[in-house]
Amino acid sequence: MGASLEGSLERHEKVGRTLGGTLKLGYGQDKAEKSISRPDLLAANCGSGAPRGCGEEGSLGCVTGRGEPSWLPVIASLIDGGLRDGREHYATLLEARPKAYVLDDATIKRTKRVNGEGLEWCGVYDEQLRRWRRQRLTDAQRREIDRLKGALRELRLVLAQILALADELGRGTIERQLAKSDLEVGLEYLLRADPQA
Fold first, then answer.
1. Which of 35, 83, 124, 187 has its CA 20 to 30 A from that of 153?
2. What is the value of pTM for the model shown?
3. DSSP per residue over 80-140, as a string?
4. Which residues on adjacent β-strands are paired with residue 63?
5. Quick one: pLDDT at residue 9?
């Protein structure tokens, strides 16, 4: 289970690095990673009309021609991928619920950080979809934006569930168990034990 959770977290973090690297074309890895912490850059540069620096190095894309959102496929893949990974991550954490002691504090902390950042990005995606919705769009683009708004609502819900479950699991990590006295562990075991066993 630990490997599955770690893989899910790594994929989630990779999306952030990919997003930063994709959106900061021509920049080095260190600047790309800094852009990840600046979701406002995406919202500021993928807006309506011709945003500042459209087409220049470091540009985050632009609305072209008849107002077609050129970054729609990128945003769609990030929302859909985030939702898929979030569901998988939540399922993995649910498996750990009856035995939270298999997790450590560092894993819980990383889970909270990664999924908290995912929630921040949801606000950026939502703003971007709103901006594009005001543009002249084809029927297919309009349907895709509407679909993505629904997926984004679901993504927010899944991320909130992950964070709540991480809080719950954080109270039973291996470090928390090792900090208890033998008496506390014994009493917890006896109180949990099935009296008919």
1. 35
2. 0.65
3. HHHHHHHHHHHHHHHHHGGGGGGS-HHHHHHHHHHHHHHHHHHHHHHHHHHHHHTS---HH
4. 69
5. 62
